[in-house]
TrEMBL record:
GO terms for cellular component: plasma membrane. Keywords: Antibiotic resistance, ATP-binding, Nucleotide-binding, Transport. It comes from Streptomyces davaonensis (strain DSM 101723 / JCM 4913 / KCC S-0913 / 768). This is ABC transporter. Residues 1-220 form the ABC transporter domain. CDD domains: ABC_DR_subfamily_A (cd03230). It is found in: Cell membrane. Its main location: membrane. One of its GO terms (molecular function) is ATP hydrolysis activity. The keyword ATP-binding applies. It is a peripheral membrane protein. It comes from the Bacteria. InterPro entries: AAA+_ATPase, ABC_transporter-like_ATP-bd, ABC_transporter-like_CS, ABC_transporter_ATP-binding, P-loop_NTPase. One of its GO terms (biological process) is response to antibiotic.
Length: 271
């Protein structure tokens, strides 16, 4: 993808299998939304090949659109419509829609069914966006920063909703997020975009190994906190046991999280 003389996506090569959840991570301006919009058929790419459910999104038909669900970053239309009415209205566009009642229940908005959309909180509005995204029983769902602005409880409810949809219907999901814990919880694989290039992609666990993020071993010696970074924490703990000739006071082993891995990759990229 090129805007004017500037490449904003370059050599991005991605495969997503049916039923897989892929999280696209990357700092602001990395090209995540641009990638998603190209895949959704909302943005015309400057070059390269794209196939989504076997079809080039630039030539997509209404039938293809009905197989794809989209939750965009900020949708503020239909402010004066009631939540239930809006769902009834959108349901008419699809051949086999979910019932609005079932949807309201699934996203936890039953109590808001007769409320005007403009009166919903940010998190409630986002849940309505998700309901609109899945109303047509899509095979593939695009979620662009779905939980931005959610409180912890709404976030947890949302994660459960996505897990249910996935387990019940084998939906393929592509999400962008800045929340690494969310990516780790929801996705099978992650792809990391930096400056329009894919710097890594693959299963969540495999990525941690690839940059060999180190585990941190902590303990207390003579009343002073000690810590050690190592790729072999088991060996380090064994050596500490030898040294203490028994239990090691305050022993903790902290494995690298996805966040450590991700920040490690960004550091390597910027070095
Ligand atoms: N219509 C446009 N014309 C010119 N440049 C654009 C246009 N849309 C996006 N860009 C540029 O393309 C780059 C990628 O933007 P994009 O919105 O895809 O990033 P992102 O990874 O989704 O960022 P964020 O995390 O902030 O949402 C940015 O440098 C942006 O300024």
């Amino acid at each position: 993808m090129r805007y004017g003389a500037r490449d904003v996506l370059d050599g991005v090569d991605l495969d997503v299998r049916r039923g897989e959840v892929l999280a696209l991570l990357g700092p602001n301006g990395a090209g995540k939304s641009t990638t998603i919009e190209i895949l959704e058929g909302f943005r015309r790419r400057s070059g390269g090949q794209v196939s989504v459910l076997g079809v080039d999104p630039e030539d997509a038909s209404d039938d293809w659109r009905a197989r794809v669900g989209i939750v965009v970053q900020s949708w503020r239309d239909h402010a004066r419509w009631q939540v239930g009415e809006l769902l009834e209205h959108f349901a008419r566009y699809y051949p086999d829609p979910r019932s609005p009642g079932e949807l309201l229940d699934a996203v936890g908005l039953t109590a808001q069914a007769r409320q005007e959309c403009r009166l919903l909180s940010g998190g409630q509005r986002r849940r309505l966006d998700v309901a609109l995204g899945i109303i047509g029983r899509p095979e593939l769902l695009f979620l662009d920063e779905p939980t931005t602005g959610f409180d912890p409880e709404s976030r947890r409810d949302f994660h459960r909703l996505i897990e249910r949809l996935r387990a019940a219907e084998g939906m393929t999901i592509l999400l962008t997020t800045h929340d690494l814990a969310e990516a780790e919880r929801l996705s099978d694989s992650i792809a990391i975009l930096v400056g329009g290039r894919l710097i890594a992609s693959g299963p969540v666990a495999g990525l941690a190994e690839r940059i060999q993020a180190q585990a941190e071993v902590r303990w207390v010696q003579d009343g002073v906190r000690q810590s050690l970074l190592t790729t072999d924490p088991s060996q380090a703990v064994w050596e500490l046991h030898q040294e203490f000739d028994g239990p090691v006071p305050g022993l903790e082993v902290r494995r690298p999280t996805l966040e450590d891995t991700y920040l490690g990759m960004l550091r390597q990229e910027n070095a």
